[in-house]
Amino acid sequence: QAELGYADSNLGTLLLDRGDVKAAIAMFSEAMRIALALSQSQPGDVSRQTQAAQARAWLASALYARGSIREASDQRGEEIASYESMLAVDPKNNDARRALSIAEGAQAMLALNLGQLDEAVAQFNRAVALAEELGRRDKDNTEWAEAGFLAKSSLGEALMLAGERQRARAAINAAQEIAAGLLAKDAAVAKWQMQFARGMLLQSELLADDGDALGALRLVQGAIQRLQDLQASSDETSRSVRSLLARAWLGAAGHNSALRRTDEARAAWSKAIALLEPPREGVATVPDDLAVLAIALRHGGRAAEAGPIVDRLAGMGFRRPDYLRSIAADEAGAAAGREASRSVP
């Protein structure tokens, strides 16, 4: 039975990578059914409990890819409860502590995308505390360092959205120090390159908030170059690199627009759109990518194409604060333009 569960999980992962979310959910649901049955029959077996928690994590990822954000959050909540139970029995279980930090961060990101900003910040803080405790136990453990980067960078992002710039800056800079340290160990690791690029994008947003649009643009350009180099050299990370690269181009468009470089902004929006345009029918696109695509389409002069995506995100309950602000600002600008055109004799 355990082997069948592993096979279902492996097939689900392959299907999810290919974008066949419906089939992936079916595989992960079956894998979770098997894992839960085994964990309930062997409650003292930590490996069985871990397998069941991980099965919930995979199912949550697939549900999110379908746009079922609240269902994904429910699965993450059950996953978190599993790791907390393991730690209650064995507080020295560092693998469970690391997994709990990641799960807290994942659920916090879901809360952020549902517009629950205060809850997201609280959960990210818990993820950071768990990761910092691991770091104190073994400063040379790269997996624990990665958990620290994810927790601190995500906390910084949420704090920026909450308007807490000083705390956001501290968290983002701390995360970037971790990413730089990982790259110093081995610059060939693709996921560490991606983490560093993500940190650059977050730091660029801080500069933009400071009024330094040119400095922000230069940081984004550096991140774009890093991601393009990574995209050219790695097939394994192409999908996740493409998502982050689209976000980088969206940032470049915004900074160029702030600098009144209209042509450059339009070109950057087009780059983001080209990376994320809806794939073939029946293949889902994760809500984060849909949000970037909707913003790029609207600001890039293709509002009619953005409409169905905006409606789809609304149906999912996607209410990430910066997405809503961007859409509202564009709608206000469009309304002002229509009003101005009507006033022309």
Question: How is this fold's topology laid out?
Answer:
Elements: H1 2-18, H2 21-41, H3 46-66, H4 69-89, H5 94-113, H6 117-137, H7 142-161, H8 165-185, H9 190-209, H10 213-233, H11 238-258, H12 262-276, H13 287-299, H14 303-316, H15 321-343
User: How far apart, in Å, are the first and last alpha carbons?
Assistant: 76 Å
Assign a percent range to the helix content. Answer: over 70%
Give me the number of helical elements.
15
Question: Quick one: how many beta strands?
Answer: 0
Uncertain ranges: 335-345
Structural class: mainly alpha
Based on CA inertia axes, which overall geometry fits?
A: globular
Strand content is: under 5%
SSE series: HHHHHHHHHHHHHHH
Radius of gyration: 21 Å
Residue-averaged pLDDT: 88
Largest sheet: none
Name its key features:
345 residues, mainly alpha
How would you sum up this structure, described in words?
With 345 residues, this protein is mainly alpha-helical. It contains 15 helices and no strands. It has helices at 2-18, 21-41, 46-66, 69-89, 94-113, 117-137, 142-161, 165-185, 190-209, 213-233, 238-258, 262-276, 287-299, 303-316, 321-343. Helix 3 (46-66) packs antiparallel against helix 4 (69-89), helix 6 (117-137) runs antiparallel to helix 7 and helix 8 runs antiparallel to helix 9. The radius of gyration is 21 Å and the shape is globular.
